[in-house]
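Example record used in the benchmark description.
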Amino acid sequence: MGRVVAILCIVVSFTACSSSDDDQSAPTSLSLRPVLGTETRDDCPAGTLADVTKPTCYRLGSAFVTEADIQTAEAIYDDGFKKWAIDADIKTSARGRYLEGLNALVNREVAIVIDERVVNVFEVHPGITGSTFEVSSREDWTKAHAVALAASIADPSKE
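Model output (structure tokens):
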């Protein structure tokens, strides 16, 4: 029987990380968190996180996936989107929580949070059964940045 894989194609804005040649530092934290509410404003009040590309503040629920739950992450070039991306696989020990979290949020929004900034929000669609997801960036996400990000969010030795 073949493995069913869920692929979340997530367009990520990378103003949170510089793509200049001088600064190739990668984010150190990643989480998936339910969106509980939004507010459009330039300065976000306590208890909310800012969007990296627009004046939106997100009130978020608790993370149901963090970088500690990522078994493997690999920088890939997504031919369909013509962009560098990350393929990530959830650890076996976290797969139940990942699927429960997503399936409980069908038709609702989930935020991708990198280093305490909302980099993207996506709507969860029904039928997710796999444990692999893809995070893709804008065209200015360099290969070096994708490689550094993948390395910073996965540690297969922690399973």
